[in-house]
Design a protein that fits this description.
Layout (H helix, E strand, L loop, with lengths): L2 E8 L2 E5 L4 E6 L1 H5 L9 E6 L4 E7 L5 E2 L4 E2 L3 E7 L7 H13 L3 E7 L6 H17 L2 E4 L8 H6 L5 E5 L6 H8 L24 E6 L2 E7 L19 H4 L19 H7 L5 H15 L6
Parallel strand pairs: 3-5, 8-9, 8-11, 9-10, 11-13
Antiparallel strand pairs: 1-2, 1-4, 1-12, 2-3, 4-5, 6-7, 12-13
Helix pairs in contact: 2-8
Length: about 290
Amino acid sequence: MPEGKIVKALSGFYYVKTDDNLYQCRGRGLLRKNKINPLVGDHVVFEKSNPGEGYITEVKKRKNELVRPPIANIDQAVIVVSATQPDFSTLLLDRFLVLIESKGIDPVVFITKMDTINPEQQDVINQFKTDYEQIGYTVQTLSTKEPEKLFDVINQFKDKISVIAGQSGVGKSSMLNAINPLLKLETNEISESLGRGKHTTRHVELIEINGGLVADTPGFSSLEFSEIELEELPDCFPEMSELKSECKFRGCMHNKEPKCAVKLAVKANEIPAYRYEHYLQFFEEIHDRKPRY
């Protein structure tokens, strides 16, 4: 039986792309019976019925999935933050990074509007860029005066399924429209419900950009840590995860425990103090979360 990837879901139909064709499919009753809900990004097996149509019979194992937008098997999240309007915030960036790390997705960070700030502010942001690069993240700065830098952006998408994340007004849509004018994204539509946890009813679609697929809806419309358990949090900070074997206590939460390698690294300026402060803030937030029943 043929296999393919779901690139669009709309009104109960799943559009499955194979190497040479696109099939409009429905899910077999067996999937519903087993409570399997196919998602955009799923690798599926289907049987053909009429020309260009078929029925999905199997959904292959997923490596990850998001609830908002409902999409599976994401390789990377492109986080777009701006130098100004809205102002650059390491706290907001760290929220995105923790959510993305918790899902096992690779993050790539773009800082836009670098040409709209003064040299002193640029130095500050370049220092933050260095901090995050030392942790191991890919961070690139973008200026509207350097359209050639869009090639750096385009190259990030090749052979990957990507979601775009970032708060409203940072330039996500403008950036994607410059790469692929067929997207015609409205420049204010993305992430308007950020933090309010609203569901958007738009369908999800994967659009081809430079040999990769990009979700046309924003990732993480809610930035709450509702799906992250306290024990998982240290591993969402790669520089802390790296040091956990050096802590005196196994399962150290790098909070009040003595002889903690992470706290020593913060003291020695090997981990930026603001990253550790954000860790403690997120720790409290998850710790004080109301239990789910």
